[in-house]
Amino acid sequence: MSDVMRTTAPEGIKSEYGAAAQGRFKRLWTANAPGYLFLLPWLIGFFGLTLGPAVISLYLSFTDFDMIRSAEWVGAANYVRIATADPKFAAAMRVTLTYVVLSVPFKLTFALLVAMALNKGVRGLPLYRAIFYLPSLLGGSVAIAVLWRQLFAGDGLVNAALAHLGIQGPSWISHPSYSLYTLVALSVWQFGSPMIIFLAGLRQIPTDMYEAASLDGASKFRQFYKITLPLLTPVIFFNAVVQTIDAFKAFTPAFIISGGTGGPINSTLFYTLYLYQEAFGNFRMGYASALAWILVLIIAIFTAFSFLTSRYWVHYDD
Amino acid sequence: MTNGITTAVTAPPSDITKRSFPTSIAIHTLLILGSLLMLYPLLWMVSASVRPENEIFSSTSLIPSSIDFSSYLRGWIGLDITFGRFFWNSLVISILTVIGNVVACSLAAYAFARLRFAGRNFWFAIMLGTLMIPYHVTLIPQYVLFLNLGWVNTILPLVVPKFLASDAFFIFLMVQFFRGIPRELDEAAMMDGCSAWRIYWKIMLPLSLPVLATAAIFSFIWTWDDFFGPLIYLNDMNTYTIQLGLRTFVDSTSASDWGGLFAMSTLTLVPVFFFFLFFQRLLIEGIATTGMKR
């Protein structure tokens, strides 16, 4: 702030008006320059790598662009084709929605159940918590997708285990009816990070609420339904939104398990995988841009819907 | 029951004393079974990587009949370029990403958390907004840009954006932490004529080591595991990261060398596992306080 004082003294020859204007400019500069200097890398990144590309991508979505010839304006043709004449888009949409609708609720249910068990004051909590969290940390890597491919292969570990029970299992990953469920299982296996967030949320609930409820004769189930669940709704809401957006963007496991095809018969054609194929396999960059904006639209609609309905079921403690 | 706020976060709830012995046994049994189920695939992979080749599929057991490290040797040289190269490439990209994220994000976070300037709230809202946008929207124009700069098949498209604070999530994480540092500290320094830069460098950063470490570790792990970015920008095998190498190995061997494949898969998980082992508390606190996605 001392800099501001120093700059207000006008210098000799300049006219009074010029000096005043210059003084004001200098004041503005000294007040704002440090902030913007610290922000500079982010600002460059924002304009050069986010806003600029986003605007260009919106433009490209209305063009035919293959990276060789320059982009050719086609109006809304890409969007019309997506909406009316693209069976692969429909397949990708169906696969992705099925994946989201199955994996998110199962994942959150597991996360909540395990968090509640751990919150009972068990001995060895840090060890259990670490074990349950480990798959979340490793799960995004190719190695785990490779492992999953073997687990659910025709001669894989799951079928070897089933054979002990006298059951002859199919080749899960190469059967179009089952392949998607192996990916759902992979996602549910990684329930560790929502579990940790639930655990932190459960710790916030004052124990005397349960004591009071017990004294009044409320059963454990009633306590869960009337105390735990309502007080945890903000955390449930948060986890549900984050996990859903994440599920819409899933890519690596489907890519590795299907060898990049989304097969068998498009049964694991995640939306992002289809987008990747269109952009970097077929070089239909305009069409892929339109697909990207549809994805934004879907995520935006979902998020807006979540926030709008949240006031009917999310309990915020004031 | 009267020891106040600290109990809420650190100590287990009070019903530890009230629960009967059989209930306790039941909970532990369930948790142990659950843990085994969670760990079984991982342990099985590690055990498969040291198994003699002919034993791999036949056995669901975790204990190999004999320990044999030859899979590691076969896997290491299984492609035209050894996995050493891929490890080195991954390491370089991950370390540069860590540096970029920590430096650029902490600069921006300091501006948002502490400095007063016109439009601060506006830019902060924009920054939060960028967290919601899926990267697919910027993917194609970015690719065209980097292609025209001649950056494809180099690590630049993967690293340079990090020095421009493109992982805005870490800005948010650091802003949260910086706001918790007592303002009196930098106000006193400012009275003494300290510049914003000196306050950032001499006061904020030294007091923020936990959050910087959290950001660094997550940056490393996410970059190490990243598949999509390298898949798009790296096409020359000499530039492959470990994830791309592994994927090429899957495609090239398909079913012929599961031992080598599991050996290399296990190796790629080792660095992440060590971070997990040594910095578990930081990682878990990072997730618990900010709700990180993974």
TrEMBL record, chain A:
Kindly list the residue ranges recorded as spanning the membrane: 36-60, 97-118, 130-148, 178-202, 223-242, 254-276, 288-308
Cellular localisation: Cell membrane
Q: Which GO terms describe its biological process?
A: transmembrane transport
Cited Pfam families: BPD_transp_1
Show where the ABC transmembrane type-1 domain sits: 93-306
**Keywords of this entry:** Cell membrane, Membrane, Transmembrane, Transmembrane helix, Transport
Q: Cellular component GO terms, alphabetically?
A: plasma membrane
Q: How does it sit in the membrane?
A: Multi-pass membrane protein
- For whether the record's keyword set contains Transmembrane, the answer is yes
The UniProt record lists the keyword Transport: yes
Q: What is its main location?
A: membrane
InterPro entries, A to Z: ABC_transporter_permease, MetI-like, MetI-like_sf
Q: What family does this belong to?
A: Belongs to the binding-protein-dependent transport system permease family.
The name of this protein is: ABC transporter permease
From TrEMBL, chain B:
SUPFAM superfamilies, per database record: MetI-like
Keyword set, alphabetical order: Cell membrane, Membrane, Transmembrane, Transmembrane helix, Transport
Its annotated compartments are: Cell membrane
- Quick one: a GO biological-process term for this protein? transmembrane transport
Q: How does it sit in the membrane?
A: Multi-pass membrane protein
**Cellular component, GO annotation:** plasma membrane
Q: Which residue ranges does UniProt annotate as crossing the membrane?
A: 25-46, 86-110, 122-143, 155-178, 199-224, 261-284
What are the ABC transmembrane type-1 domain coordinates in residue numbering?
A: 87-279
Q: Which InterPro entries match?
A: MetI-like, MetI-like_sf
What's this protein's family per the entry?
Answer: Belongs to the binding-protein-dependent transport system permease family.
The record ties this protein, via PANTHER family, to:
ABC TRANSPORTER PERMEASE PROTEIN MG189-RELATED-RELATED, ABC TRANSPORTER PERMEASE PROTEIN YESQ-RELATED
This chain's protein is named Sugar ABC transporter permease
Q: Which organism is it from?
A: Rhizobium altiplani
Its taxonomic path starts at: Bacteria, Pseudomonadati, Pseudomonadota, Alphaproteobacteria, Hyphomicrobiales
